[in-house]
Design brief:
Arp2/3 complex 21 kDa subunit ARPC3; two-stranded antiparallel sheet; 7 helices; 2 strands
């Protein structure tokens, strides 16, 4: 008679948890981008949406890797499924860089997204990078280096709105048991 041994893990794998968390955070960015979005009357296709706020929140609270992945996947999928497919490659690059920069700065100098001024600085520093990627992407798409300038004001507004929403929410979330435990580590 052969004995069958069962192996029941007592806790989930860290890699599985990391994958699931990344999927949830990417979905949060996707839904935030799709939930409320206002097409801008200027430029060659821009939106004001809550996805930038979600990207900032993820990057500040979870760090550069999660910020980059959630921004690229969430907003990239929005472009693909939301009728903006031509923008998807540019969005994936712009938002991955933006999420990474915000997370890297927010998690620098021994901080873990717990320093408000550093978080604000992170969002402010990431915005010109995002603007540059969208500008270059749009200039290549439309073979015109002047027309993309019309989209810059909308992209700045989008980042400003995202920052104004993200910072207070990060402060509130950092007081929850999950994040207090993380910040006390």
């Amino acid at each position: 008679m052969q004995t069958i041994q069962r192996h029941t893990p007592t806790k989930p794998s860290i890699k599985t948890f990391d994958l699931v968390l990344t999927a949830i955070l990417s979905t949060l960015v996707l839904v935030s981008t799709a939930f409320i979005n206002i097409k801008l009357p200027i430029g060659q296709g821009g939106l004001i949406h809550l996805g930038t706020a979600a990207l900032f929140i993820v990057a500040i609270l979870f760090g550069p890797k999660k910020g980059a992945l959630a921004g690229a996947i969430g907003m990239g999928l929005f472009d693909i499924f939301g009728g903006w497919i031509i923008w998807a490659p540019t969005t994936i690059i712009a938002r991955a860089l933006q999420g990474y920069i915000v997370g890297k700065i927010a998690w620098s100098k021994g901080h873990r997204g717990d320093h408000v001024r550093l978080n604000i600085l992170a969002a402010l520093i990431s915005t010109p990078v995002m603007l540059a990627v969208y500008y270059i992407g749009q200039a290549i798409m439309y073979k015109n280096w002047v027309a993309p300038l019309a989209s810059v004001p909308g992209d700045i507004i989008q980042s400003a709105v995202g920052l104004l929403i993200a910072i207070p929410l990060c402060l509130a979330l950092s007081k929850t048991p999950f994040f207090r435990k993380k910040f006390l580590k």
